[in-house]
Amino acid sequence: MHSSQATVTPWPAQIRVVVADDRTLFREALVCLLSSKGTLQVMATGPTADAASLVATHQPDVLVLGATDGAVAAARAVAPPPGVKVVVIGDRDEAPARVLAAGASGFVACGAAPDDLIAAITAVHAGERFPADAGDADDPVGILSPRELETLKFLAVGDTNREIALRLGISVKTVDTHRGHVLKKLRLRNNSDLTRFAIQHGLIDRGA
Predict the structure, then answer these.
(1) Sheet harboring 106-109: ordered strands across?
(2) Contact 177, 170 (CB under 8 A)
């Protein structure tokens, strides 16, 4: 009688993930999403304050970190050991270039599609950054969030806060907040400075 051995089919290589977020419901939803993918393995989950200890204990490939008080601050607060990549999930008004410059390998906005998070985890695990077109944090335009950049362009062509609010579907107060952030980030004083900046960096036509 000949003995036979069962053929063992190896599991596909999995990316080991730790999820840290202070919002329990959001955190559990992320775990369900990631666990449904055969290429991802969720090792552990917990609040953001436990991120460092979770990483040290479970040694994941990627830490998915929820940011409720600013993605840049979250990226700076976590210093993972070599080989562990960090993907930060934050507000859509955050500038990806600044988040990556703060130490993260990837940034995904809260309103992004689930596939974007999967793509980010896969990309950073492969040694890439996400999004790939995040730009350079040293570029003054690159430090602005998408909504701040929109606000800058409208202000530069002479639109009022109320007109911008109607265009973007936001409140006048929010427009004023974006304007204040733009002035502070670019170290400008007023709308005339904004217009000159926009022209110099090709954001609007000189004849606008």
Answers:
(1) 40-46, 15-20, 62-66, 85-90, 106-109
(2) no
Q: What is the pLDDT along the chain (208 residues), one digit of tens a residue?
A: 444 344 444 445 689 999 999 999 999 999 999 999 889 999 999 999 999 999 999 999 999 999 988 888 888 888 888 889 999 999 887 888 888 888 899 999 988 999 999 999 999 999 998 998 776 766 777 778 778 889 999 999 999 999 999 999 999 999 999 999 999 888 899 999 999 998 888 888 765 5
What is the three-state SS of the chain? CCCCCCCCCCCCCCEEEEEECCCHHHHHHHHHHHHCCCCEEEEEEECHHHHHHHHHHHCCCEEEEECCCCHHHHHHHCCCCCCCEEEEEECCCCCHHHHHHCCCCEEEECCCCHHHHHHHHHHHHCCCCECCCCCCCCCHHHHCCHHHHHHHHHHHCCCCHHHHHHHHCCCHHHHHHHHHHHHHHHCCCCHHHHHHHHHHCCCCCCCC
CA distance 8 to 90: 42
Q: What gap in Å lies between CA 47 and CA 29, rounded to an integer?
A: 14
Q: What are the structural domains of the chain?
A: 15-125 (3.40.50.2300), 144-200 (1.10.10.10)
- pTM exceeds 0.85: no
